[in-house]
Amino acid sequence: MLPTQADRAAYLAAVYAAPDAGGSDAVGEAYNHFRSKIAAADDPDDPHDLEELENAVVRGLALVAVTAEPGDNAHRIFESLNNTGLQLNQSDLLKNYLFMRLGDKAEVLYDSVWLPLEKRLSGANLELLFWLDLVQTDERAKQSDTYVGQQKRLEKLTTPVEIEAEVLRIAKLGDVLATILDPTREPDAEIRRRLTRIKAWGSTTAYPVVMRLLARRSQGKATPDQVARALTFLESYFVRRIVIGRATANLNRTLLQAVGAIADAGDVDLALRDYLSRGRKYFATDKQVRDTAGSVPFYWQGRGNQKKLILQWLEESYGSREAVDPKNLTIEHVLPQSLTDAVRDVFAAGLPEGADVAYEHERIVHTIGNLTLSGYNSELSNKVFEKKRAKLAESGLLMNQEIAAHETWGAKEIAERGAALAEKIIAIWPGPDESLVDKVLEEPSAMRSLVASIVAEIPAGRWTSYGDVALVAGTYPQPVAAVIASYPIAGAWRVLQAGGTISPGFRWEDPNRKDDPQEYLEAEGLNFDDAGHASPGQYIAAEELAALSGLEIDQDAAGWHGNGTGGTGSVKSQQRDFFQSVRDLGEMTSSHINVWPKAQQQNWMDIRTGSSRAPLVLTVTSVTTNVGCGLYINHDKQLFADLLARRDEFETALGTTLDWRELPTKKASRIVLLSPGDFRDEGEAPQLAEWLVSTADRFAAIFRTHL
């Protein structure tokens, strides 16, 4: 019984008690570890202790040989036998399968070819390599079935010579993957730049296409310039999809099928562009980029790091000579996400008389024209533009200096900057071949019909959100809201904001109709709490809505849509897991909160601070991507007024501005503090949990004596 070749010499040294046994390698460390334990267990006064150990080893252990029959899934067999041991991955099984069939050449080929490959790629990346190789010819292959799929292919090779050629081929592909994972290995400057960006993008869905492109070059079937242009089209495809709000729709399948489209093409760059231009692949045209830059909530699209990268690359296009470390930057809303009284007053001043301030704010606050990068997010936070302007002017980022050149920042400035950034995006990232684009796919009439058919399925006494309708329709919330607001749609009043509140921009189709939409919904059987939130128990999530409509939803997009009350099962479980981490951290570190409640699959956590007059409520949202901490004051407007009178005292103690929501038409009032961030992002979640716990603790310390 021998270990892998890399460890074999050290293993044999230990078996034969050679002078070099017990070196600093992994086998030597294990050998020395057990020798140490045996020495510690040897009691000089007990002549039998080592004999008992010897008996346990010699008589108590058994060697079991398992022989797999043709057609058996060796991976599954090993899992069943090794349920308490180190996981043997699919690359290990394939390596064993290959070298078992090499015969006398196995040792030489391992030392000269396979061992260098293992040094370049980890076990997980070797498994990725085998899967990437498999999908070059079978786009349906799942990564979990790599061993089975490769074994079927390798069974057709009948001689050691063919197996040797296969090992050499895999090793060459390994060089390609090593370059994708570490672009500094790439000698061509422009290809290296594009590979660096694709790696930073963080999506392995691009790897099969990239591998085929680099493999074509290594075979002499594509020039470096063609590969660089093809990689540019791939990057452009990713960026433009996010800009128009189609970040994930059918992405995996599209890119796997792209491998076949460029497999035998003469010009790989043109072939990839042509393929991405045809059909429903959402390679946005210049017109679509211009049309959506001012309406798509860019802040909601794609992954957090991807949105940040687009802004970072836009900043690079300004040609700044000052290097700015992107690690210290976060996405900043110039017009704040939260409408404090001060922000509301300034923002409203730039709107037409009679405009719905809250609706106009929600319409543009998350668009790309209002977003930038900043290292001062916590300092800028919810401040009015006049106070933010000085910090932005001092920034090393030219885009921030450009924003600071404005005297005011409102709807007009955001729209103008969004249009300017759209032109930059068009110039930096080339679009599809528009002669091949199917223009009828995105017709407004088609979208209107689809939204109307979905909304019509919502039963009386039930409700859903704009985000859920968007998920079923394969779009995003803003166009859904625009369609519902602009056209007669049956049941439109049953589509509410995230959290179950009626949109401030909701208008009846009939301008003469003046009845209260909440009262009408209540007459239909929908229940509301005192704060105007529809009952979560009457909510219809995207999956149920899709089933009612006879449609399917994009499961990749489902994880990034969602809403504050229900949403997909994935989002609900993420809410529970996140609040569990908040509870665990609170129990360990909180000084002023004694009891942290059990985590639930919901978007809020109620914390009792010794007073029933105003419990603390922690919230997360997957639509506006922020977390919040605040006091929920029910049936006590006088308490809210008393606290508001001491506003300066509380905000000074907390060191920040609070959002004071009197809600004069409701029985409840709220005092809220928000922090941007996506609780579903594994990189952000720990910091968000710490912020919630520390903020809740400070709220409890400062407000408790006044409740």
Describe this structure in words.
There is one protein chain. The protein has 707 residues and is an alpha+beta fold. The chain contains 32 helices and nine strands. Strand 6 and strand 7 form a beta hairpin. Helix 12 runs parallel beside helix 14 (268-277) and helix 20 (385-394) runs antiparallel to helix 21. The longest helix has 22 residues, at 160-181. Mean pLDDT is 83; it is low at 440-444 and 554-569.
Concise account of the structure shown:
By secondary structure, the chain is α+β, with helices and mostly antiparallel strands.
Helices and strands in order:
Layout: H1 5-15, H2 26-41, H3 49-60, H4 74-81, H5 90-100, H6 106-120, H7 123-135, H8 146-154, H9 160-181, H10 189-201, H11 207-218, H12 224-243, H13 251-262, H14 268-277, H15 286-292, H16 304-316, E1 330-333, H17 341-349, H18 357-364, E2 371-374, H19 377-380, H20 385-394, H21 398-404, H22 411-428, H23 444-455, E3 464-465, H24 466-473, H25 477-486, E4 495-496, H26 517-524, H27 542-549, H28 555-558, H29 569-589, E5 604-607, E6 616-621, E7 626-634, H30 637-645, H31 647-654, E8 659-661, E9 668-676, H32 685-703
Parallel strand pairs: 3-4
Antiparallel strand pairs: 1-2, 5-6, 6-7, 7-9, 8-9
Helix pairs in contact: 1-2, 5-8, 6-9, 7-8, 7-9, 9-11, 10-12, 11-12, 11-13, 12-14, 13-14, 20-21, 23-24, 24-25, 24-27, 29-32
